[in-house]
Amino acid sequence: MIHFGQISKEKFLKEYWQKKPLLLKNAIPGFASPLAPDELAGLSCEEEFESRIIKGSTKHNNWSLENGPFDDLFYQNTPKDEWTLLVQGVDKHILEVYEMIEEFNFIPRWRFDDVMVSFAAKGGSVGPHYDHYDVFLLQGLGKRKWQISSLDCNPNNYVQNSELRIMKTFQVEDSFVVEPGDILYIPPGIAHHGISLNSECITLSFGYRSYSANEMLEALDIEGDKKNTDYYIDPNWSVDMGKSEISKSSINQALKLLNFDELPIDFFGCFITKLDPFDQQKFNEIMAFEKPIKIEESERYILAPLCRIAYQIITGNLYVYINGELFNTEYFDDDLVINFCNSRELKVNKQNKLLAKSLSSFHLLEKISNHL
After folding, report:
1. Domain count within the chain
2. pLDDT tens digit string along 123-162?
3. Is the pTM of this model over 0.70?
4. Residue ending a domain, choose from 208, 231, 249
5. Are residues 351 and 283 in the same domain?
6. Which of 208, 223, 250 finishes a domain?
7. Best exposed site among 62, 106, 123, 363 by fewest CB in 10 Å?
């Protein structure tokens, strides 16, 4: 469980979420990275993972980007210092990392995107930058110096002719040194620059999705406005709401963003659970080449980590969205389905076996024992 120190989760949601950074020292006491540097490098050699390596530093201002998958020969030729390996979506393949997302259950799960794990040699960095999404940066190995700033966070402040979104000018307003178990929360629009202080430094980034107005309009087949740079802003969250529930206040925020009076009833749920192109390709391959798993009583199954799920209660009716589509719940007890949406887990019994079989038929379940 995350230790918030002098503040409560309620205070974090009210005063910090999407508003200002927060450093939580020793947030997870005794924490150590679930992956060693060599294991992370091994993942970057597999096609199942999106990976990239960034070389450079602000000292020399000479940056380069290379995309994986990599191989052993590539790593034999990496420099001693000033490089970073980043591997996306580690939670979708490593159960121990997937289970760590539960540490952040005070934020609705449908807002979550993925866990990126990075390794950095001494001086390694991805450069000063800002994002449009929220992120919790959990230190797993070694020490990292973080510098943050709210100044000049705009598209005109990027280094020109670069594949990387690195800021030309970065005026440090605050800095911290983090150690294993420390968490730094960064809201959207706040610039941050992390520099490894050791020869081996691992950081786990728990990132949340961002939704631009133009992205939503495109999904509605409505032409967007290139000048519109607005993004979805969350409502005030309550810590006791369903982990996968889409609240009415969330819909209202979408309407406010688009300046609409109403949306198609299932639009927002389908929109927020749609897989990104990389994950959709992987899911398509699973559906094409793998058989649905067999459901057995008393066995435990989880929602396949690749998948996204959310639900709404609209005029007393349950709507469930999985991977951008409406899931038919007509033949199942609402409480059973809601419990699955929030827990993402089923221990199969006579009451839920039919639901488990239906989910399995769409390749939506994985057997927990297969991950152990």
Report:
1. 2
2. 999 999 999 999 999 999 999 999 999 999 999 999 888 8
3. yes
4. 208
5. yes
6. 208
7. 62
